[in-house]
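Hey, quick one: can you model this chain's 3D structure?
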Amino acid sequence: MDKAPIILASASAARYTMLRNAGVDFQSIPADLDEKDIILKLEKEGASVGHIALTLAKEKAFKISNQNPEAYVIGSDQVLSMDDVIYNKVNDKTEALDRLTNFSGKQHFLTSAVCVIKAGEYLWHKTDAAALDMKPLNSEQLKEYCENAGDILTKCVGCYAIEGLGIRLFDRIEGNHYSMMGMPLLPLLNYLEKIGAL
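Sure thing. Here's the predicted structure for all 198 residues.
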């Protein structure tokens, strides 16, 4: 049994809540990375969406592990893609409306990755994806949503929080709920239990 400290290398409120609700005793230490630069570099190399999500998760975890070698560090990230294009967060409500207009009536994917690193050693990972079909929404519906959504428009890459008002934008969702929320939680918990970290 290894009851080393557990650190989540992420500032994501959704990932924090997932682990807290699962009864995991951990500390959150966000890793400051230039994610856009990493994504651009990997896209130029022709990397898959899953590889990009996992690389972001690993980069976060390695950065925090180097500062906290005694801890199990959980790195996790999520990438939104549609038609082989990867999307980053928008800057304002105007960009959010454009993004949602583009997504209207189409399917996009949320690919989530999680890994565990200790003392700079890469121990384990899992990648998973969810497919989301957005309703065909007219401009008035989208404007009304943007008026009511608040700052979630710029905090989430898809301009929606699926656990809130954003769920009403969709016709159908296929995939694991936790992966869709940003982290494949069940495989992570099973791994931490297996190694005696929980």
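One thing worth noting: The helical segments are 13-21, 35-44, 49-67, 93-103, 139-149, 152-155, 177-181, 185-194.
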